[in-house]
Amino acid sequence: MAKGWKFKPVKSVTTRLRKSSARGLALAAEHVLGESNAKVPLEEGTLERSGTVSLDEKNLRAAISYDTPYATVQHEDLTLSHTGGREAKFLENAINGNKAEVLDIVARTVQGEW
User: Fold this and answer.
1) In the predicted model, what is the mean pLDDT of residues 86-96?
2) 61: which strand partners?
């Protein structure tokens, strides 16, 4: 080994990369949830408050969900009328409209961990 060089074991690097990737993924999912909440149909705020992010660190997967009996109907039914800039497809549109931001959040988080 050259003098002045210190190499970290591959396992240490892989562990750090996985942890920072999971953190970035969670932050990105929270960002999408915020964007979705800005468009979720709003009457009393129950649907918006039910929004949550779930993270599977092992498989590096995030899920965004709304937990009310009517969440799916509000999301899918394009015939419903919503006021104040609220809309159906609120989650789908937030995901599709923020792909670049999601990638940027994950990338910046991973870079910040190194």
Assistant:
1) 97
2) 56
The reported pLDDT for the residue numbered 101 is 97
According to DSSP, the residues that pair with 54 across neighbouring strands are 63
Closest CA to 54 of 62, 66, 46: 62
AA identity, residue 28: A
Question: What is the rounded distance in angstroms from the CA atom of residue 33 to the CA atom of residue 52?
Answer: 7
Residue 106 CA to residue 53 CA, distance in Å, equals 15
Yes or no: say if 109 and 20 are a contact pair by the CB < 8 Å rule.
yes
Global pTM value: 0.86
CB 47 within 8 A of CB 74: yes
The sign of the torsion formed by the CA atoms of 100, 106, 109, 114 equals negative
102: closest CA among 12, 49, 34?
34
